[in-house]
Specification:
Layout (H helix, E strand, L loop, with lengths): L19 E3 L5 E3 L1 E2 L10 H10 L12 H21 L6 E5 L2 H11 L5 E5 L4 H4 L8 E5 L5 H14 L6 E6 L11 H10 L3 E5 L11 H4 L3 E5 L10 E5 L2 H5 L10 E6 L5 E5 L13 H17 L1 H20 L4 E3 L12 E6 L4 H12 L1 E2 L1 E3 L4 H8 L24 E5 L6 H17 L3 E6 L2 E9 L2
Parallel strand pairs: 3-15, 5-6, 5-7, 7-8, 8-9
Antiparallel strand pairs: 1-2, 4-10, 9-10, 11-12, 13-14, 14-17, 16-17, 18-19
Bound molecules: pyridoxal-5'-phosphate.
The site of pyridoxal-5'-phosphate (PLP) has 13 residues, from helix 3 and helix 4.
Amino acid sequence: MSTTATALCAPLAVLGHDVRVPLATGEKVGYAALDYAASAPALQRVWDDVAAYAPYYGSVHRGAGYLSQLSTDLFEQSRRTVADFLDLREGDQVVFTRATTDSLNLLAGALPVGTRVYAFETEHHASLLPWRHAGLTVEYLRAPRSHAEAVAALDAALAADSAPGPRLLCVTGASNVTGELWPIAELTATAHRHGARVVLDAAQLAPHHRLSVRELDVDWVAFSGHKLYAPFGAGVLAGRSDWLDAAEPYLAGGGASRTVAREADGSVAVEWHTGPARHEAGSPNVIGAYAIASACRALTEAGFDVLEARERALVERLTAGLAAIPEVKVLNLFGEGSARVGVLSFVVRGWNSSHFSAALSAEYGIGVRDGLFCAHPLVRTLLGGEEAAPSECGAPEPSLPGERSLNAIRVSFGAGTPEEHVERFLAAVRTLVTDGARWTYRSEGGRCVADTGERAA
Ligand SMILES: Cc1ncc(COP(=O)(O)O)c(C=O)c1O
């Protein structure tokens, strides 16, 4: 019986909870959105806040009119709300960006020349790749198999490299593939002991867990609005000001420049702002920032204790349900039972993951994701190291339905997920494994799609 049957709080209201989608048969069912790790649905509260503000929308930092002043106030208030949400330290700053990828690229461009960056090969590509920047060097650490191994590997790498100069560790708070939590406080203490700084990729952590930059002691944190129930194209980089203020602006343009003057020799002299404006050139995304602030308020008011307890119960239900299906193998880096957020990847014996995911959608109205999840080295490690598999981000291997898969299936959920979605997902997995697909599928453009009008024989 479901461990979630007792005393779980209701899911938070999200848009799309009542959307019905067509199955291959033409019938319609309620959509079970189980791909929160890619993009979470908007919180109703965020949508309502944005709708209430929309008539008052105006330019930020530019206009003398009432609506421009109001929008500027809201934008700056949003920054303070995010700072409170992240429990920043005195002197830390919040820069609004487009998303986590943008935040980490901004930071990469702001690192002092010669910075040596460390990242585990298990990172999402957004945390793995920005450091291949001119003037930086990057060392990729092998996939650890426990928290202790991760801390020891970092310790050894930093100890072996005693050259002077700035160093940075980039590490995820929760894996976008396995959902497993990383030992951030321990890694940060280790990095700091060696004089290295830390940026936390909180894209998958911030939507699920209370986050205190002060307590974790990380130097920067990055996350995306669209994974935090605020899908309006904004993200955040927050943390220490010194390197950000010393760096060239991420984008050159209006808003980042304090003064611009023509020189006698015909050149143009620029004095750049310090603080967040330095890296926010151009007209800011005030709706995106306001939406993130609204989500921060909504999650804080709902209470992370309550949200985390609810999610833990759903994760337990999910892992227990999948463990009872022998054909299913759940992918874990740190071993069975390691703590995770509501993100889990698995493969099914005898099934191509793209075929399985297509059947979940076409026959059950369940939306999951299949692929390598923009973390190719990690997924290949977890699947047994098939180095040969070429793949675009998210694209399945071009094998035919029914063939063995070189990629995985990911199910992910959050504060808006009803228990019924997890139960329906488990029932669908069981039925597919036992009875097979009821429909026929074909490969099209590298994806598996349901044939129109073709029931399986
Ligand atoms: C752990 C992690 N980091 C970074 C990113 C990149 O986020 P975005 O695509 O919003 O820039 C993702 C996206 O899936 C992620 O899961």
